[in-house]
Write a structure and sequence with these properties.
The protein is α/β, with parallel strands linked by helices. The protein contains seven helices and ten strands. The longest helix has 14 residues.
């Protein structure tokens, strides 16, 4: 089974309001992210919450996903959220996708392609790439989880990927949506459907 960890614990300081709760089409930003993974047939979705966690967890519950609260969300680093998400994985999970809660533009087809690549090639790491730039969501096989759990700040998930650069199975996509996230009001205005 492939699961997904959705990192949604940020404080949204640059946005000025909780970005997971912002409208996105007929949904919210986070609702759209969860829907995309569900449409790609990912059954087990763990959302790591932090800022505005009560409202965020209400959205998570609406979609039948699971949530885990990162008490250290205010430190601003993604590593602790990723580690919490890995610790919340079920015994049946063989690999997990790492997705961003502020990336509602990601397409169902991209998620399916990453999962299919993992199943066909038995890769340890599958990372989408647009014009030679790595994006999200990326997939990590269970045998590498312990290494992620042992990473200490100031090291980051990016350092982990750099250390394993030769083992990464890159999936070239023809859309920059794997790179686009929502950090500022301008990002939201220019990409909101």
């Amino acid at each position: 089974m492939i699961s997904v960890i959705v990192l949604a614990a940020g404080e949204s300081k640059r946005m000025g309001q909780p970005k997971m709760l912002l409208p996105w089409g007929k949904d919210t930003v986070l609702g759209q992210v969860i829907s995309t993974f569900q449409e790609a047939c990912i059954e087990d979705i763990v959302v790591v919450t932090g800022g505005a966690h009560e409202q965020v967890e209400r959205i998570v519950n609406q979609y039948g996903a699971r949530s885990v609260f990162n008490r250290h969300f205010a430190s601003g680093e993604m590593l602790s959220s990723l580690q919490l998400g890995i610790n919340a994985q079920t015994p049946q999970t063989q690999a997990t996708l790492i997705g961003l809660g502020d990336q509602p533009q990601v397409q169902t087809g991209t998620v399916q392609l990453i999962c299919e690549t993992f199943r066909q090639r038995k890769s340890w790491l599958v990372v989408p790439s647009f014009q030679r730039r790595r994006g999200h969501p990326w997939l990590v096989e269970k045998s590498l989880w312990q290494e992620i759990l042992e990473i200490k700040f100031p090291q980051s998930p990016r350092d982990f990927l750099n250390e394993h650069s030769r083992e990464i199975d890159y999936v070239e996509v023809d859309t920059p949506t794997i790179l686009a996230d929502l950090d500022t009001p301008e990002d939201y205005r220019t990409s909101h459907p």
